[in-house]
Amino acid sequence: MSHVFPRHTKSELPVAAGGDGAYLIDADGKRYLDCGDAAVSCLGHSNPAVIRAVQQQVEQIAFAHTGFMTSEPAEALADLLIQHAPGDLDRVYFVSGGSEATEAAIKLARQYFLEIGQPERRHVIARKQSYHGNTLGALSAGGNAWRRAQFAPMLIEMTHISACYEYAEKPEGESSFDYGQRVANELEAEILRLGPETVMAFMAEPVVGATLGAVPAVEGYFKRIREICDQYGVLLILDEVMCGMGRTGHLFACDHDGVAPDILCIAKGLGAGYQPIGAMLCTDEIYGAIRDGSGFFQHGHTYIGHPVATAAALAVVRELTEGDLPARAGRMGSKLHSALEAAFGQHPNVGDLRGRGLFRGVELVADRETKTPFDPSLGIAGKIKKAALAEGLICYPMAGTRDGRNGDHILLAPPFIINDEQIGELVSKLERSFSAVL
Ligand code: PMP
């Protein structure tokens, strides 16, 4: 019996006992190529610079509450992020993970409009089949029906427009560009329906991760979204908790779309698993309204700006930027895509291969022609996760929930240090896992 909630038995899962670059090692010495783990470990599991930074910071000072003191790593990390951040983002609020970042973004948007004398702005619009975290505010923004179902009566009322999910939802005969414009225009229709003076923010993932499996928007979609937000004075919150920090081939995923948000949420790759940390970046216009208004963001957690977490993240961001690792993620991602195409391009149960950089999705279907998903009761994704673990591969399979048409899919998010040989290993282990299940 395991006392760790929510595990039931110790034997259910291997015990993580070590890490070596792209590999996790269990207590029996078995090695697993880590291409999943929720897109966290972008530098692999034994990065010496990050380990040293954590060790040194613990020895120097582990914790000082930000209500009383700041710390060198927190200041340096904020400076470095701002140096590379898109658009006018120039303030950083540190938190401990993704849900805290999106939750803080929602509250910051609300307080901003109070400060500038628009208290009637209270609505957040987000998208169907999205995920923004599991705390109640973040879950309210998420549009995944299955994740929301149990908590529906407790959620904040937010509305959801269509995802930009070309493979499953673009009608035949419509161009990708027109499809993107059409689904982006749903935002305008929703703003008008709610009343523009009542809408405070639109929240979206530039590349949808957990709920759809590495689905980027089509060309032009986010440019149109940005225009609509500007037209109606609505803040654009981009959630790059999963797709940010270099994973798509750019340090920030929205760089690819050529848009900059008013508020940007990051986590996962920021700490690369060495420490739990997330951040919310915002413009000086938003921060300034609070600074010059009530003077205080009405929010906070005990561990914001934690010295050890920020020291780890500082070392991570230095590794990413000084080593040009986002570009490497782009290059290795193209190789991975080609290898996946060669292995699964004709597979009868592979409907779509997509993604950006080292953030790739494999959509599984019962029928390629009709794009019909597998019956969720078959538990295909769960079976593949198990088969892959047995092969020594960690990938991130997601069960289909039949929100819209999304079915089972496999998310692949290898570390940016992955090499050619390991890409071969990943694809052949995945092939064997598919053969065992499909
Ligand atoms: N937003 C996105 C896009 C995510 O993928 C996740 C986590 N999968 C979250 C928010 C929540 O992050 P956390 O689990 O760290 O709270």
UniProtKB/TrEMBL annotation:
It comes from the Bacteria. SUPFAM superfamilies: PLP-dependent transferases. The keyword Transferase applies. Keywords: Aminotransferase, Pyridoxal phosphate, Transferase. InterPro entries: Aminotrans_3, Aminotrans_3_PPA_site, PyrdxlP-dep_Trfase, PyrdxlP-dep_Trfase_major, PyrdxlP-dep_Trfase_small. Gene3D superfamilies: Aspartate Aminotransferase, domain 1 (3.90.1150.10), Type I PLP-dependent aspartate aminotransferase-like (Major domain) (3.40.640.10). Pfam families: Aminotran_3. GO terms for molecular function: pyridoxal phosphate binding; transaminase activity. One of its GO terms (cellular component) is cytosol. Its cofactor is pyridoxal 5'-phosphate. PANTHER family: AMINOTRANSFERASE (PTHR43094), AMINOTRANSFERASE CLASS-III (PTHR43094:SF1). Belongs to the class-III pyridoxal-phosphate-dependent aminotransferase family. This is Aspartate aminotransferase family protein.
